[in-house]
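ugh ok so i messed up the first submission bc i forgot one of the chains. this is the corrected input, ALL of the components this time, i swear. 1205 residues overall. if the numbers dont match what u have on ur side tell me asap before i send this to the collaborators (the ones from the other lab, u know who)
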Amino acid sequence: MSDLNPSPQIGRSIPRLEARAKVTGRTEYVHHLRLPGMLHGKIFRSTMPHALIRKIDVSAAAALEGVYRVVTIDDIKTVLPHPYYGPAFHDQPVLADGKVRFAGEPVAVVLAYDRKIAEEALGLIEVEYEELPAVFDEMEAAESSTLVHDELKPAATFPDLQHLKGRRGTNIALDYKLRRGDVDAAFAMADHVFEHEFRTQQVMHIPMEPFVTVADVVDGQATIHTASQGPSFVRIEMARFLGLPENKVRVKVPHLGGGFGGKLYIKLEALVTSLSLLVGKPVKISLTMEEQFFMVTRHPCTFKIKSAVTKDGKITARQCRIWWNGGAYADIGPRVTQKAGFTSAGPYDIDNVWIDSYAVYTNRPPAGALRGFGAPQTAWAYECHMDMMARELGLDPADFRRRNILRNGRPQASGTLLRDADIELSMDQVMGHLNWSKPFDHGNGAVRRGRGLAIGFKGITAPTTSVAIVNLYGDGSCALYIGTVDMGQGSDTVMAQIAGEVLNMDAAAIKVIHPDTDVTPYDMGTLGSRSTFHMGTAVRLAAEDARNKIEELARDLGLPPGSNLPVAELLRKKYGMQAGNIIGTGSFIPDYEKPDSETGQSRMATPFWGVGASGAEVEVDMETGQFTVTKLINVADIGVPINPKLAKVQLSGAGIMQYGFTTTENMIFQNGQLTNGSLADYKIPSLLDMPRDFINEATQSRDPQGPFGAKGAGESTTIALSPAIGNAIADAIGVHLLDLPITPETVYRAIQSVKSAKAGA
Amino acid sequence: MSTHRLIRFTLNGVPSKAMVSSQDTLIDLLQNQFDLKGARESCSQGLCGCCTVYLNDKAISACLSLAWFADGAEIRTIEGLAQGETLDPVQQAFIDAGAFQCGFCTSGFIMMTKKLLEENPHPTEEEIRHYLVGNLCRCSAYPEIIDAVKALSRRAG
Amino acid sequence: MAMADLDIHEPGDLAEAFCLLRAPDGAARPMGGGTALMLMMKAQLFKPSALVSLAKVDPRFHGVELSADGASFSIGAMTTFAELEHHADLCARLPVIAQTMVTLANPRVRNVATIGGNLAHADPHLDLPPVWASLDAEVSVIGPQGERRFPVIELFAGYYETTLQPGELIMRLHAPVQQGWRRRYVKVTTRSAHDWPAIGIAIGLKMQGARCEDLRLILSAATDRPTRLVAAEAVVRGQAITDDLLAAAGKAAASEVHIETDSRGSSDYKAHLLSVHLKRALHDLCE
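and heres the new structure output, hopefully the right one now
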């Protein structure tokens, strides 16, 4: 990632546009927003994982001095007859509607001008429940007669889910299928068949700025200030929810204190807007760190994977069956089920593929999007599976991968041809950093060493649209109007660099107008590594449009070609004074073909491929199972980095986050009750946890479809990291772990299992 | 004996006073009465460091500190580090190293780094990691934070 | 109904403090640095009606002093961790304290938390209480009925429970500086490095040649209070140190206490960690 780039803006590591605001504590977050006359809401939550609500007594809470009002679903229904929301299914009531489906679900809200009084009043609410049988495990729920929802209610926003409408008697919210070739025949003819089952745990995004929304509904117009990654989606869904046209719903998003996929679609917005509509005042709800665990999480999953392999180490068939534990409400889980499903056979060239991927309701907190959109869970399975097979076959794991790796120009399981995806190059770079071709000292005493690698890829949500506006003012200065949310990834800066490149302007001089749906045009959302590619292209088109209009204006003014008069002078000539604008617009939707609903086959299933490879070296204390990742390497193909420094911190940041999901993070439940929902007991990585030798880099790649060769970078290093560590541990101890997280105790138990197997033999 | 009290203190060098309740934390005081937003509450348990301020020149977690006891104290926040337009060297080093992403934890890291270097101008990497272990960055700009501290240490000669 | 009031008092003498703490509802809490108290109040684990600051009650609650004969430190209950951490004399004579501080919470907590408040909190996961116990430290407590002094290990009665009588306050801690003892605090974490310990082991060991003359083994975190590992001590005391002996000590430790399963590990895994880390730490200390 060198800065030696002849281009004026692209490939330059300029500081973030908002750098000074961030180091001086002046950055604007919704967290700090206070509106005149604003009420604070505090949420009373269910203590039962699955129960009917017999009675809610709010009288004592309502009587507490300073309490403005205590609100239940019955109150909401006086203004909104059907207060249900959700991006894929309209299955979630803003407050429990006669029934609770997970412990922690919102049941009532206390409103007060003083947040502390609202909090105090929570202790005075009493609810009588009639407990129902509950189901927590995805495998159990898939078969269970205990139902989380009586009927499936797909949202109209996703036409491909309409066939699920009205389905009853099941916890399976969506069943995704991919069929390619003849799997049965290939298994029948195989030299070897391997089958393994893997599981991943429930984890949470933990943005440092907890979820927060301020809504102000007055005179039939709603203004929603929200820490959201998807302001356009919030507007569309809240307009539907409120029965208003889009132009009566205004959604504003300043900077976000982290998102990671959690702050997508609809979260607090539906509840807070309902409350404001009900009481006619601005209402703010900011969750505590503890409450965040009840908002949205990452899907745990069970993945059964089976491969047919020839004696030469060529994989001829693969069957993947995945059950995603979506918790009590679907959120975007059905999309995770599809999108992670279609790449779940891994980045391998396999002729016969069978994939079943199920979104399953359970009585746990809901699961949705989290950095990688299911790809990290699937890669944990398919990449550990690869090493386990290589071990059985006596092949070098890297060599085994190389015999099967998917190369550009070859069809992926969906039939879409791989293109501009440097999977093998990424693996090569990881191998280089691991000195893979050199002998490795595994040790033989109390400390054993191991090394491992893994590769992975992901498809990008499609089809999605981004629209951008470039506005040149009378003095020639420039502002960019975009709906992309800068939640730390640096999109403001990158988009300014793209516009600056086209307009030959200094990116640092360009102002980026933050999402305000009254002002900024539509964008599908800041998610799934799509912004640089999609919005970046829209910004490039908008800037080119502006540039064309500048040339047009020069022609209209009778100036000879190449006169290159500054914009300010052109506008002054036209209007006789400093006035006017030049407005360029750009809109981008990539080529896409909806996969066949029976086979999952598509000519173009993704606008680009996210690619990551990881490598790890570990030391394992054979007596206790305690381990240290002594070296961690992440390599990603992100095309041409627009801002190499920002890209690098995305790669390493995503890597450390996934490192937490691999080792220390785990939401632990007892009978459906979360037992470790705070940062004291749910441990995210600190500086002491970061591996001492930690390498992150991009391949020298280029995606000709992306703006100036760039593509997304936010998720690539999450994909292959867990299995790289898992494979390194297996290399050290001689046995594979099948479940995440990898903890000292699980490693210890694995070591013991080898010992007792040997003793028994 | 009362549940409200007038306290006097200096805030970023300015003599100040405020009426506080016995339940107000320093974060409540700074945000609600002085519109200072650089120190912010996140984990509420003193573990993440987002709320770091100096009370009588010592770094503390403002979310766990009652405003009541700030009577007579000297309080300094991230807003008090820069001299006019000139950033504190620690702030500048964080920009130069690109040591943050979303920025929510950044005030705390800067405040703690400044204390670290006051106590130990040339910390080893392990000392940096230990001193800043009570500051959590979920975007995980940790490598760049270490770079920023090391750059400052080098500059200290 | 109105929101419950919280009164804050900063009494200037002990008599006033005792009077305030004798509030009829029993919900007046003494306050040192306030770190643990604030955490519990924020989590709504309890709601005191009054906080009684001990900052100004008596000069005897403050200061770190080495006795004239150099035999012991006397530490005021209101001494902060940071004061101890930066107390050159104490760190030189009791280096185990400085060693423990490195992984104890974070500098902000250490700037505020006090020695007395830390003991009175009686959370078994805390790092310093087992270390004090391994030093044979004693506490002086003072209450309406007068003053008494007893070994610090007798202070702990269970999770968040002490043997303090109503109104009694921890005033000073007395930590002997014993010659010839080797000491270590072993903090074993099983998740992130900045987690609370899964087990903590505070060790004091006095050797005479290759033979162990005396030792103290205190387990924390895995049990409901800092617990002396009597059986493990008995295995080692008076014996010549061998690998087999240390392994036997580890096993004795693991079987003499009841360890609960929690999110940091199962009961038997933590017992295993105890036996291994005890064995290793003793081994290292013998070298």
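quick check: Residues 267-286 of chain C form the longest helix (20 residues). that seems consistent at least. Chain C has eleven helices and 14 strands.
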